[in-house]
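Blackboard transcription, Thursday session:
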Amino acid sequence: EVVLTQSPATLSLSPGERATLSCRASQSVSSYLAWYQQKPGQAPRLLIYDASNRATGVPARFSGSGSGTDFTLTISSLEPEDFAVYYCQQRYNWPPITFGQGTRLEIK
Amino acid sequence: EVQLLESGGGLVQPGGSLRLSCAASGFTFRSYAMGWVRQAPGKGPEWVSSISGVNGDTYYSGSVRGRFTISRDNSKNTLYLQMNSLRAEDTAVYFCAKGGPGDYVFNWGQGTLVTVSS
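(Written on the board underneath:)
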């Protein structure tokens, strides 16, 4: 089973700042990695798939990069609605697909 | 628009059973694999089980294999999860997910809470 480790656990930033979130896989997952955003009381929302492709309707300030074992989600300029928990997920080695433990992005 | 509506969650004692349902609309249900993903309080999501669209092949995580059974009724556009021998560690919000065991989850239901406690 592929273990995904996200860092940092919590990221405190202000609106307008740049956010950089990391996801490291315990073995190569090629580019088969996705990022989700989750707000309290809601289901996760797919933002990025195949490491760098934005899902339909996702603003251009969200971008993903990486391959193999190291991946990054970047939010270029934080909007108030971006403060949430972010999860990565791999689908290269399944079953099972696996998720990271999350990074909480909070307002500083 | 894809819509997934779960039901059937609730409070159950350890060792008990519960059956979750997911009513799907907005797409050709029989053509798609479907699954369940759960999320324990304060934790990341965890894939539970999936079922293929046509031939009904099923897949389970190691933590639920032998206790949970996934099924579907394509005539009713409904997905099910029969959960037996429930344990405290099964406490979570259970989400219905459109897609197979090796997919990203583009569409999620709103979730239904299962609490296993005496």
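Lecturer's comment: Chain A has a mean pLDDT of 97.
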